[in-house]
Amino acid sequence: MKGPESAPPAPGGPSSKWLDRLNEIGERHATAIIAVSTGLIILTVLIFAKHFYDKSQVERAEQELGNAETVEQLTDLKKRYSSTPVGSRIAFRLANRYYEDGKLDLARGEYKEFLSKYPDDRLNVFVTRALSSLERNAKYEAEDKDARLKEFRLTPHPKQIGDVKDARYQWGPLPPANPVVQIELASGTIKAELFEDEAPNAVAAFIKLAAQKYFDGLKWDIVGANERLQSQAKAENAVDLTLAQEGTKSADAYSLVLVKQKDAGVGGSQFQILLRPVPELKDATVFGVVTDGASTLSGVKKDDAIKSVTVVSKRDHAYEPQPLKK
Length: 326
Hints:
Elements: H1 14-28, H2 30-67, H3 71-81, H4 87-100, H5 104-117, H6 124-150, H7 158-161, E1 180-185, E2 188-194, H8 200-211, E3 220-223, E4 228-231, E5 242-243, E6 255-259, E7 266-267, E8 272-274, E9 284-292, E10 306-313
Antiparallel strand pairs: 1-2, 1-10, 2-9, 3-4, 4-8, 5-7, 6-8, 6-9
């Protein structure tokens, strides 16, 4: 025999009372619930709107910074975009412009403001170096310039000239200038001096490949935690160029570097630009340093392309690298 079926809960059971209580709370606080829901929706919309606004601000700042040349233009950009990720580069460009125009006091103020406002920015190394150079120039202008202009001295017998420690009283042929290259990036243009005396083979390889447009169109990789940029290997018509390690230059910020290959030597067909000092870097050849436009490097992203590498000046001889293997 089947037992009696379970009867449905009585209308006044615990479940019904709980639902009634919930409905009562909802009716009592309906206005507050609607207000909170509306507030959350508005907050979400504002968050998304700010994200896209900030993104558009950065893109606009990047574009305007690439076209800015004068102090007035850079000052205007600083006022409008100082709170964006591009703000540090704008401040650095403005300080450099003041320095180039000989306005040392204004340049000093901008450099010091940069160090105070952007203490962790990776341009700090370059700013510190520029500020140190500025202070030396200011000291010379204030203390030494007039005195040195009034100095005169008869040179001693030529046999003694080589022993004179003051370079102003030595004579002889001037050393040839180092080669200079210009690298055009999506974020701007940089110039670099190549250390031909310290790393002649690496410089010969770089100049020869640059003249052949080998680097044009190559993309960048980011190595480490924004430690350095590295040109990617060429997919077609790649050059297998292994060179002996050269030079004793330290791996300072914005150095141009050839790094060690898996087997031996350093690779001459790929190069790196250091974004900060890497004193622990071994088995590498430092063959140049960025001298102008270093601030644009902070805007380089992975897979950005190198538009072109152009040799601006070089010494009067052929540049033929001597690889370790043919």
